[in-house]
């Protein structure tokens, strides 16, 4: 059985929703799955003068506490890791970067080498840095010697307008009219696409395990 870790940071729930879909797709494909969230670095409000954002963040954190917090052991255990992060100025979010910075010991013993890696994201606008956010995570994977698995344009679901780019499935989120809430604008196509991306990553991980064992 192939081990798949879905490791994500979500501020307001969009990435969480996609991560759950990724985990469900991997389980359906027969993988052993760990769904793991990356915790906030601080409990201080992320945007104290932005009421809608802050209230949505507090609400999401409260409702996702049942998801276990990611540890470095989860990365060591996994054959494939699918990462989720909102875009922050075209980069991965700070809490996820903080978690990645703790991987030095595992990386130093080549514990992340040859693992299959893929990533998905969500931003506030269609051109809010989706591609560069995915590419910022790819820079990390290069250093680890991991094998990057992009969704590419390898299935019709990836051709739908809401799915972003061939680097990784991308959703668009934004404010809605109800005070204190952010719109959960993740579409059914996004969920189907991130499921496809996860299974593709799982399949590459399986092939790597088999090939490295026989090679």
UniProtKB/TrEMBL annotation:
Q: Which Pfam families match?
A: FMN_red
Gene3D superfamilies with a match to the protein in the record? 3.40.50.360
| Superkingdom of this protein's organism | Bacteria
Question: Which InterPro entries does the record cross-reference, listed alphabetically?
Answer: Flavodoxin/NO_synth, Flavoprotein-like_sf, FMN_Rdtase-like_dom
Native source organism of the sequence: Streptomyces macrolidinus
Which positions fall inside the Flavodoxin-like domain?
4-177
Q: What name goes with this protein?
A: NAD(P)H-dependent oxidoreductase
């Amino acid at each position: 059985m192939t081990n798949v870790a879905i490791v994500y940071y979500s501020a307001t729930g969009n990435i969480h929703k996609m991560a759950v879909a990724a985990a469900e797709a991997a389980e359906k494909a027969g993988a052993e799955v760990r769904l793991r969230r990356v915790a906030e670095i601080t409990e201080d409000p992320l945007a104290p003068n932005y009421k809608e954002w802050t209230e949505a963040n507090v609400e999401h954190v409260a409702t996702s506490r049942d998801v276990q917090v990611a540890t470095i052991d989860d990365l060591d255990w996994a054959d494939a890791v699918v990462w989720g992060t909102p875009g922050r100025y075209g980069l991965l979010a700070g809490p996820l970067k903080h978690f990645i910075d703790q991987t030095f010991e595992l990386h130093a013993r080549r514990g992340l080498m040859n693992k299959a890696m893929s990533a998905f994201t969500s931003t506030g606008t269609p051109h809010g840095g989706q591609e560069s956010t995915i590419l910022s995570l790819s820079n990390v994977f290069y250093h680890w010697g991991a094998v990057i698995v992009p969704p590419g344009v390898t299935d019709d679901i990836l051709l739908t307008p809401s799915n972003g780019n061939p680097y990784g499935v991308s959703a668009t989120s934004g404010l809605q009219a109800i005070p204190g809430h952010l719109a959960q604008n993740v579409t059914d196509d996004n969920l189907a696409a991130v499921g496809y991306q996860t299974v593709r990553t799982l399949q590459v991980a399986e092939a790597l395990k088999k090939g490295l064992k026989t090679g």
